[in-house]
6-carboxy-5,6,7,8-tetrahydropterin synthase
Amino acid sequence: MYTVGVRDHIMVAHRLDGDFFGPAQRMHGATYVVSAEVEQEELDEHGVVCDIGMLRAKLRGVLEQLDYRNLDEHPGFTSGKSTTEVIARYIHRELGHVLPLRAGTMLTVVLDESPNAWAKYRGPIRHASTMPGAEIGVA
């Protein structure tokens, strides 16, 4: 299995509902390092999994919708339900919709909260992009 990945970061504000979250129930800021990895069994006709520059640009496009935002006011999140795991899944799904890769390509999104804590969402891209060439080998 071949893998390529890129990293970026976002700064958000949010709160988490419930006593379970202790002080994170209060509004607070978070900075996440966001990694996105694409995995495929075979390389394309250019000898790559995908273009790294394209992957980086698509990730940045998705992250721009979250960067410097209060996630409690973002339409993609229920107020008080923006855990690191939920944010990782959201980024995975949004990125999967814009990547010009065939359905079934494995995508992993990791959010690092700190050097010691992270959350990951890994799964296949559910929908092939409508970009030219993405229809080749659709699973």
About this structure: Residues 84-98 form the longest helix (15 residues). Helices lie at 52-64, 84-98. The longest strand covers residues 2-14. The two ends are 16 Å apart (CA to CA).
